[in-house]
Amino acid sequence: MMPKNKYRVNYGKSYLEFVLPRGMQMDVADAKPVEPLQDINLAVADAMAHPLGSRPLRELAQSGQKVCLVFTDITRSSPDSILVPALLHELEQAGVRDEDVTLLCGIGMHRPSTLEEKRIKLGSQIVKRYTVIDNEPQNPATLVDLGITPGGVPVQMHKVAVNADLLIATGIVEPHQYAGYSGGRKTVAIGAAGEPLVAFTHGPAFVDHPGTRLGKIENNPFHDALVEASRRAGLDFILNVVLNDKKQVLRVAAGDPEDAFLDLVAFARSVYEVPIAHAYDIVIGGVGHPKDSNLYQASRAPTYLYFAPTPVVRPNGFLIIPARCEEGAGSGAGEQRFLSAMRDSPDITTILADARENGYPPGQQRAFVLAKVLEKARIIIVGSDYPDLVSDCKMIPAKTMAEALSIAEQDLGRSCNVLLVPHAMLTLPVIQTRHR
Length: 436
Description:
Rossmann fold; 2 domains; 20 strands
């Protein structure tokens, strides 16, 4: 049992312990505790046997069909090593041949996955047995043009996904910066998309739109674009989960991309959305592995906390994020664009003005969104392997939580109120408006 004023927050595969300075008041916002499913394989089998809004996959699939199964990359905690074998078993029962199945890693604009990462996500035997490829968003030869949506989004998708007779996807449903909630169609609509689609949906017009908010799927132009893109690609069936902070499965749903997704969103909202009374001077957000492996991914935590329905940090307050960032900024094209924009611009105002005037390529939207936070608040990154990189990206490096809290205390004074969000990616603090 830790002392009353001692706390812990995720850091890599472990955590950091810290003591709250005298005079500060701490509240904790954490997702609702829900008992994880005891038998994941049984829950997946049950979801597959009773899909929502769809016939079972083994009835949809037929011998001789070409099938594409899009799965999430290593930056996502979707338990694909369980979900993908279950889907493949259904296809096998339907008579689909191994050589007619392609497993497509939905990397979006992230770096290509390594062979070892494919083995981790799928299992060595599946990697040996089936064709496993990565999305190639910048290779026109791999893409099919599916036109422009009513919202102006150019839809280009990987040809293996588009040309499949049956298109399937895995995913996790959790709060998402732009889509409101991830999962559902996003694994295909972004993960298997060409650069033009990713660039447009992550551009300043979409990101600045008031409907593009964390936890919001209604009247959200980003979400609407995913729905239309996946429809044009021909997404037929999904198998998705909701996880807790320990990556344990809380709920599984399979079936129609709309029905299964909405079922999981309703459940996820009951778990992740946490009421708070007001905004705070200091907000501490836990990230943990794998999201804190690079600065691009770890920077999601402060933007999630800021772009909750109402910002949870007061103007000129501090967001403190422990993140080792052992991969630096990240090596993918999007991550490097983020780094260049943050590092090479003279100040935050320039980042925002340039983005709004000239737009930006995919990946650089993270710099735009982060700059919108830094315009109103300070961000401290604790325990980074690359503190100079943190400084270059216009944030404040700190070696320890004690140092980070001291920096905030020197600026704000001792009588700060502090909010600890142990799992910032899986908690959506919502300020409750009081009605007189």
